Amino acid sequence: MEARCRELIAAVAPACVAVKLQLACFERLGAPGWTALHDVASAARRHGLLVIADGKRGDVPVTAAAYAQALVGETHTPWGPAPGLGADAFTASPLLGRDALEPLVEAAASAGAGVFVLVRTSNPGAAEIQDEPEGSPLHDRLAALVDGFADALAGSGGLSGAGAVVGATAPQLIGHLRGLMPRAIFLVPGVGAQGGRPQDLGAAFEPGPASALVPVSRALSEARDPAAAAERLRAQVWDASGG
Asked: For residue range 171-226, what is the model confidence (pLDDT) as tens digits?
């Protein structure tokens, strides 16, 4: 698995800005998987890519702080600090509430990292919970939560490291959610195997300054020529962004 990840990173890196590592695929292998995760993250950095740890962490504050140490910080021990993964950003679940996100945001701020909070995910079952129309839809309330952290991770260009996961499979919501989170960088999964289309993502980049990352996995890893597939997708996203 590690060798295949390295091959894919080397092939697609010229068309990409980041790699999103699905932590479950490594963690299921136990200690060797965690070692492979560190090695793959190092390979991505050598190719000039940012590393996003996709673990969708979320727990009570004391445990959230431990997750943050594992992803972007370090743990102090009697034998010295034990470094974590050193990711540039990570995904987080907001369903335990603001106090459970605060340790993650604080750790990201200290590390100069970002957090992508789940707001409207790309899976088919998301609509059942996140789009429920009773009162204010859950995705709207989660968007307000993300926007409330914008200042804590504010960058110099008007954007914030308090980002949001907004699925490409519900393109009709992207513009609405962009309006609720004008400073958030969007992480937009669902393009490719899940049916999302790059040409439907323009609203994620408007109005400026606005930015989005579009992770694609199976459409690249299963392609006959991953490098060519990555370049095609890069061009399509660039066109959709108005760049």
From this structure: 999 999 999 999 999 999 999 888 999 999 999 998 878 899 999 999 999 999 99
Q: Which amino acid is at 197?
A: R
Radius of gyration in angstroms for the set of CA atoms belonging to the chain, rounded to a whole number: 17
- 115: closest CA among 76, 164, 156? 164
Active-site annotation, residues? 56
SS3 90: strand
CB 22 within 8 A of CB 216: no
- Distance CA(44)–CA(20), nearest Å, equals 10
Burial class (CB in 10 A: 0-12, 13-18, 19+), 4: exposed
Listed residue (181, 186, 194, 241) closest to 213, CA to CA: 186
* Reported pTM: 0.94
The CA-CA-CA angle for residues 33, 38, 44, to 5°, reads 120
